[in-house]
Input
Amino acid sequence: MGDTKRGRERKGMDKREQQQMRLARRELEASEEPPEPEDDELSIGD
Output
């Protein structure tokens, strides 16, 4: 079957939807608290 513009558009929409679902899932799985910085990261103004 030939390649159609509508088919490409539909595939692109599906990919965007999958990407948004993955991003939402990743955000939900992420911890609420950021990791504690290491001691060597705290010495910025020395």
Q: What stands out?
A: Helices lie at 5-29.
